[in-house]
């Protein structure tokens, strides 16, 4: 692993970005495991896939983390809202078409 400052060429930079992308996918796969389990728990409890208070709590957390890491909170929120919608759609696969989104 090289830091950005240690990257001397575009090949170095691309290799590090590719490495990070692979790690991000691994982390999203882990997150998906929790989403799948949430769908099972929600199904047993009769809960909908979309719980608006939780959506906004997740967004607020991401905005706070973005600020802590010097990233633009609006941009991170936009990305995360996409992640949230993907997660809700994944839960709906378990909950079925009759479940409320």
Descriptive terms for the model:
101 residues; mainly alpha; Chorismate Mutase Domain, subunit A; 3 helices; 75% helix; elongated
Characterization of the model:
This protein has 101 residues and is an all-alpha fold. The protein is 75% helix and 0% strand. It has 3 helices and no strands. The longest helix has 36 residues, at 10-45. The mean pLDDT is 95.
* Main sheet characteristics: none
Question: Would you tell me the structural class of the helices and strands?
Answer: mainly alpha
N- to C-terminal separation? 42 Å
DSSP summary: helix tally? 3
Q: The CATH topology is what?
A: Chorismate Mutase Domain, subunit A
User: How many domains comprise the coordinates?
Assistant: 1
Categorize the overall geometry.
elongated
Order of helices and strands: HHH
Set out the fold topology.
Layout: H1 10-45, H2 52-68, H3 73-95
Helix pairs in contact: 1-3, 2-3
GO molecular function: carbon-oxygen lyase activity; chorismate mutase activity
Domain Chorismate mutase: 4-95
Enzyme class: isomerase
Overview in brief:
By secondary structure, the protein is an all-alpha fold.
